[in-house]
Each structure stands twice: as C-alpha cells, then as structure tokens.
# Entry
Amino acid sequence: MHMPTRELIKASLLKLLETNSMDEITVKMVCQGAGVSRQALYNHYYCLPDVLQEALVDRLDEASAQLDSYHTWSACFESILNSLLRQKAVLLHVYRSNSAGELVRIIESYGARLVKRGISQCAADMGYEVSEQDRTFMLKLYMATFMGILTQWFGEGMKMEPAYIASRSDAMMGFSIRGTLKKLYGGG
# Structure
C-alpha cells in the first residue's frame, strides 16, 4: 500500500526526532528519510514546524477521539498525557531545542479547542447561557493551569505518571467545568 507524501514526511520527521534535537534536523534529512524531493515537502508544508504541528495534532486527535465517552475532563487529560508520554523522546527533543515555544504553542492551541468544547457542552447540557466574558475567563484559567503543569512536566523530563497528574489536577482544582458553571450561573 502506498503511503501519501504527507504521511511519509511526518513519519520521517518523527523518526528523526526520536534520536535528534529539532535543532539538528534539516529539510534535507526529512526528505531523505521520506524518500521525497525538497519540492515535494514544500508542496505540502511551509516549514518543518508545520510538519511537526500536523504530526502532533494527528497524535492528539487519536488520544481525544473518544472525547464524548470520557466522563470527566481529567480522564481526557490523562488520555492526552498518555499520548504525549508515548512520544517522550520526540517531545523532549523538541522541548529541549529552539523549537520549545512552538511545541508549547501547538499543545496550547489544541488544548484550548478542547476546553472551549468542554465549556460549551457543559453549558448546553446544564441549560446555562454563559457570557463570552465568562467563557474567555474560564478558558484562560483552565489553560494557565494545564499549560503550567505541562511545561513543568516537560522540563522535568516527563517523569511523573499521567494518571497521577490528572487525578491530582482534578482534586486540587476543586471544581470541574460543570461545578464552575453551577457556581456562576446556578446560584450554588
């Protein structure tokens, strides 16, 4: 079966990142690993960080594919952390390079979409009309917490277990999105 060019390029970059820093990887190396020309890469991607973004989002999509079956945000968070942990070498080679900010941006952007979706679903389920100002504030609060945890996790070499991180985050944050909405809009 013939693998599409985009998939070959992403697979090549991820394979190189298993043993090399993002700083050491060149377009030429990715193209050689994928068996494609430089022009073929540029026909599909603007630059290597674009390849990285698509490859990581693909993996995160796989981890959150069952999002509606998660009973709590912490179960989804744990699934995403486990997905990231399976790519530990790759992620640490990016995080410990000049592309660390790009990695954090990719994960933050992805996470923000999930949190926005969670807020919207919970508000709709509970019959609350949530103001845009409250949605924005809730998003910022949750994202600051999650990204703080993730950047510390990366910085410490991803040693802490995802189940521990998710369960402690759930316990220490006090309120789920539903609890927050009930407190803000339900008078509880």
User: Anything to note?
Assistant: Residues 100-126 form the longest helix (27 residues). The radius of gyration is 19 Å.
